[in-house]
Design goal:
The protein is an alpha/beta fold. It folds into two domains: about 200 residues, Rossmann fold, CATH 3.40.50.720; about 40 residues, no CATH class. About 50% of the residues lie in helices and about 15% in strands. Strands 3-2-1-4-5-6-7 form a seven-stranded parallel β-sheet, with helices on both faces. The relative contact order is 0.14. Bound molecules: nicotinamide-adenine-dinucleotide. Nicotinamide-adenine-dinucleotide (NAD) binds next to α1, α4 and α6.
């Protein structure tokens, strides 16, 4: 097991990519705090981890709520004594062209991705600095590197996370904290399933065309990235033994983006 006895917080882990990482971390021996908007949404993932023999706790944590984030991290440390790994994964999408985008929608996307990641980072670092070690991971995207139409707040937020990741890598080094960002291509989670019909409508094409000609057009093999692919990278980064790997972005996208 590659993460034996490590203590991990994963935000937005009630479903999708976060849940897949949480379950894989559980199998790799980590104790996992599954955080999501409500306790109920986190509980199902916790039960799956426990049924597979792992250890997990559910946390109600809206990452845009400063108090909820601080209290969630405190609950982990009260229960398990420290925090070793934190993954700022919670995210939302919004499809609209810039000229039609409501300011409230712009703010909401930036709030969850950027302000949420900041709050999780600050709370986590304050615990990691006490033990002199830790691993911060961010859920970026190929949209941290490139842009697509109709997703301006998401693209902006994901580019912003690169900056936060790198700043934390610089500051965290002297405290034994590494910081890296995972940048997946399209993974078939609810976040992506929702935008297939939305994009079809906006672009005036079929859903099949959205998948083939928009989402997977630039991959080397026309394939979606899988939950397992992303979870494996998240294990690898957290298990990596030194600070040789810090401040890096790892793109998992079937060659959609090559850096
Ligand atoms: P998802 O919609 O399946 O899951 C997102 C989870 O985040 C949900 O459980 C949701 O309740 C939670 N969440 C939303 N707002 C929250 C908040 N304010 N506080 C706490 N939790 C909140 O989406 P996903 O595809 O699993 O996405 C997870 C992350 O991966 C996101 O950051 C997303 O941008 C990123 N990502 C996804 C893809 C993809 O193709 N699916 C690709 C690249 C990056």
């Amino acid at each position: 097991m590659r993460l034996e006895n490590r203590i991990a917080l994963i935000t937005g882990a009630g479903r999708g990519i976060g849940r897949a990482i949480a379950e894989q971390y559980g199998r790799e021996g980590a104790r996992v705090a599954v955080a999501d908007l409500t306790l109920e949404s986190a509980q199902e993932a916790v039960e799956a981890i426990q049924q597979a023999g792992g250890t997990a706790m559910a946390l109600a944590m809206d990452v845009t709520n400063e108090k909820a984030v601080e209290e969630g991290v405190k609950a982990i440390v009260d229960e398990w004594g420290r925090l070793d790994i934190a993954i700022a994964n919670a995210g939302i999408q919004h499809i609209d062209p810039v000229h039609n985008l409501a300011y409230a929608d712009w703010c909401k996307v930036l709030d969850v991705h950027l302000n949420g990641a900041f709050l999780v980072t600050r709370a986590a670092l304050n615990e990691m600095y006490k033990t002199g070690s830790g691993c911060m991971l961010y859920m970026g995207s190929v949209h941290s590197m490139t842009a697509s139409p109709l997703k301006s707040p998401y693209v902006t937020a994901k580019h912003g996370l690169l900056g936060l990741c790198r700043a934390v890598a610089k500051e965290g080094a002297e405290h034994g904290v590494s910081s890296n960002i995972i940048c997946p291509g399209f993974v078939r989670t609810p976040l992506v399933e929702k935008q297939i019909p939305e994009q079809a409508k906006e672009l005036g094409i079929s859903e099949e065309e959205v998948i083939r000609d928009v989402m997977l057009k630039h991959t080397v093999d026309g394939k979606f990235t899988t939950l397992e692919d992303v979870a494996e990278v998240a294990v690898h980064l957290a298990a990596f033994p030194s600070a040789a790997l810090t401040g890096q972005s790892i793109v998992v996208s079937h060659g959609w983006h090559m850096q």
